[in-house]
Design brief:
Elements lengths: L29 E2 H14 L7 H11 L3 H11 L2 E2 L6 E3 L5 E3 L11 E2 L3
Parallel strand pairs: 1-5
Antiparallel strand pairs: 2-3, 3-4
Helix pairs in contact: 2-3
């Protein structure tokens, strides 16, 4: 009994909902092409920072899609979210994954390619 007073189980700590990152500004103006190059370089080297490649792949997929699908990707991969904007996450084995804001959103000072 007592179902009406039951609360959701937060046992694994993975119940945090993803949110859009806060706006940020790059130290200098940056073009979309430069931003994409920075992102590609990060994702190409990310597995060398430690952790598992499949988790890095899931984080990349989550970073490059809308919030609803990103939440599904993170949940299905067993990723534990410390920061709701995905800047700090952990896998089920406790490995830490840090994502720079530039892979998650665009800066406020993004300029058109010239």
């Amino acid at each position: 009994m007592g179902c009406a007073l039951s609360s959701p189980d937060k046992g694994d700590g993975n119940g945090k909902k993803i949110r859009k990152p806060k706006s940020w500004k790059h130290p200098q103006q940056i073009t979309k092409t430069q931003l994409m190059q920075m992102r590609d370089e990060f994702w190409d080297t990310a597995p060398h920072y430690g952790g598992r490649k499949e988790i890095w792949d899931a984080l990349r997929a989550a970073a490059e899609t809308d919030l609803t699908l990103a939440q599904a990707i993170v949940d299905s991969a067993g990723i534990i979210i410390q920061s709701a904007d995905l800047t700090i996450c952990y896998d089920e084995r406790g490995a830490k994954y840090e994502l720079p804001k530039y892979v998650l959103s665009e800066p406020t000072n993004l300029i058109q390619d010239g």
